[in-house]
What we know:
The protein has a single domain, classed as Glutaredoxin. It is 49% helix and 10% strand. The protein is built from nine helices and six strands; from the N terminus they run βαβαααααααββαββ. A four-stranded mixed β-sheet has the order 2-1-3-4, sandwiched between helices. Strands 5-6 form a two-stranded antiparallel ribbon. Strand 5 (226-227) and strand 6 form a beta hairpin.
Amino acid sequence: MKVEIWSDVVCPFCYIGKRKFEQALGQFAHRSEVQIEWKSFQLTPEFQPIPGESIHASLAKKKGVPEAEGRRMNDHMAMIAKEVGLDYDFEKAVPANTFLAHQLIHFGAHYGQQDAMKERLFAAYYLEGQNLNEVDTLASLAAEIGLDAGAARQALLAGTYANEVRRDEYEAQQIQVRGVPFFVFDDKYAVSGAQPSEVFAEVLDTVWQEGHPKAQPALLADGPACGPDGCE
Length: 232
């Protein structure tokens, strides 16, 4: 089974959704046969970070509300994240344009480490307050999961995977992705948002059963026979 997941590193519900999906996947009997592919989606591709600006101020500006309201929204999100064991630290979070981070995820995919790279970036942004706008920071994160920092840095500076990011975003437009996280199962079913793990579990079972129907003998002739209610 193939599961494609469109998400953004600076989308708080995307990290939460990742955890909820992982909970369902962990209980899925055929989890070893599930292939996950992370797809790029930038919530604000035109975003230009302002050095020193807090995530509260950045969110408030985006929403057109006072900074205090931005802080309140982030505090509420932090409480939701705790429900899945994530300790968001918005006081340290550095607003970022995620184009480079998405390229790094594709770099990780090239070496079979896409999920690990995605997880490391989420943690770096939401839990550690690392600056994902910096190439050197991103290269160091790649090294932490066993990838070559020099190769990562070179790929980011050269834009080696830039077109891969744009291709994902184009695909998102074609299937009318309006928000993330957005999960697509075997190109047949889609789930939008950080749904409860029970929802993901149900979808996994449904898609698996449709793709692996139980074999039943084909009835080629039907005639007189006896059953529990008697003989015909």
